[in-house]
């Protein structure tokens, strides 16, 4: 790109992107206040940012001057954030978890994915929305939804709906999961596995386990991290299915479309940021990514993700979300119930103590 073109693009992007950054800063301040008051962010900045963006969009529709930067934040910045997440993935956690538990985590994620997607489709939700809910429920909540959205071409409305309802239930799980300890008679280790399998985000796992015991926190964090490792294969698989999703979206086929699929090259089927994600994950596993670089890369990815969520919120039409709200809520609740039952079955079946 020529320097003058790059300069014009930067100027065009600046207003909308600056607005996203302001929303992100406000959301981060709210999360910081939560951490000071209750020591854990029960509602993360990512969720606050998208809800704040939706609130702003409900009273003010950004004009053309703002839309370019908002669209840039929702797409390009999100893709960069997904790529950088690869640097935090290491095969060491996979090996350390042990074969039985590892197989159980993989099975739980697969069952939850299939069940959640099926529930969404049975309730009449679109394929993309069902996939977002399934990935958020089965893998890692908001982060999985944010990572999968650009791969399957999900709209901002779909992402906002999925994240909003998943976030609300995620907080309820954190608050309600400890109640199962006396009901099920779980040991600290069993509870840690259960928390790692059912709670959506890593910070929420800490919030759900730290008040119980150190063992629960350690086990829950490990299980959660191994569960997050499933995001890579799932995202890669979905990237290969993306053309079919476009075919099934109901959009009219373009001229010559029947032969277009045969002409799609590898880089069309697998987006650049997925290749970057896999490359960084491989480099991390081989020890090529210095430990000193992990914290900055993870931090940058987190900030970019929150900015992208603010951008998605600013592009959401609340009326669209309201039309699917009831079905989405039911799909998320039913999916979470399935995940919880499967997780309890795994804990009991493996005889973890």
TrEMBL record:
The keyword Phosphoprotein does not apply. GO terms for cellular component: plasma membrane. It is a multi-pass membrane protein. The lineage of its organism: Bacteria, Pseudomonadati, Pseudomonadota, Alphaproteobacteria, Hyphomicrobiales. Keywords: Cell membrane, Membrane, Transmembrane, Transmembrane helix. The chain crosses the membrane at residues 42-60, 72-94, 100-119, 131-153, 159-181, 193-214, 226-245, 266-287, 293-316, 328-347. InterPro entries: UPF0324_pro (IPR018383). It is found in: Cell membrane. This is Membrane protein. Belongs to the UPF0324 family. The keyword Oxidoreductase does not apply.
């Amino acid at each position: 790109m020529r320097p003058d073109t790059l300069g014009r693009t930067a100027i065009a992007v600046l207003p909308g992107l600056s607005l996203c950054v302001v929303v992100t800063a406000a959301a981060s301040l709210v999360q910081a206040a939560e951490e000071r008051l209750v020591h854990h962010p029960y509602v993360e900045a990512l969720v606050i940012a998208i809800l704040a963006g939706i609130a702003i969009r409900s009273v003010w529709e950004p004009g053309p001057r703002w839309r370019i930067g908002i669209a840039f934040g929702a797409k390009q910045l999100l893709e960069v954030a997904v790529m950088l997440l690869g640097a935090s993935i290491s095969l060491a956690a996979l090996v350390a978890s042990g074969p039985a538990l590892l197989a159980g985590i993989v099975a739980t994620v697969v069952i939850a994915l299939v069940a959640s997607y099926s529930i969404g489709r049975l309730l009449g939700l679109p394929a993309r929305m069902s996939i977002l809910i399934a990935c958020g429920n089965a893998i890692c909540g908001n982060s999985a939804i944010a990572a999968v959205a650009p791969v399957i071409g999900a709209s901002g409305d779909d992402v906002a709906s999925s994240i909003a309802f998943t976030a609300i239930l995620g907080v309820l799980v954190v608050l309600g999961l400890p109640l199962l300890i006396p009901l099920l008679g779980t040991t600290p280790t069993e509870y840690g596995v259960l928390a790692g399998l059912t709670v959506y985000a890593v910070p929420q796992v800490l919030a759900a386990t730290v008040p119980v015991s150190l063992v629960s926190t350690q086990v829950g964090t490990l299980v959660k991290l191994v569960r997050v490792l499933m995001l890579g294969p799932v995202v890669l698989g979905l990237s290969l299915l993306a053309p079919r999703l476009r075919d099934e979206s109901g959009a009219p086929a373009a001229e010559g479309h029947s032969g277009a699929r045969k002409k799609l090259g590898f880089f069309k089927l697998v987006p650049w940021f997925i290749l970057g994600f896999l490359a960084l994950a491989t480099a991390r596993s081989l020890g090529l990514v210095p430990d000193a670089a992990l914290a900055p890369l993870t931090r940058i990815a987190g900030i970019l993700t929150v900015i992208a969520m603010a951008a998605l919120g600013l592009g959401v039409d609340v009326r669209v979300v309201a039309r699917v709200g009831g079905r989405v809520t039911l799909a998320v609740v039913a999916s979470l119930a399935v995940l919880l039952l499967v997780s309890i079955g795994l804990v009991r079946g493996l005889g973890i103590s």
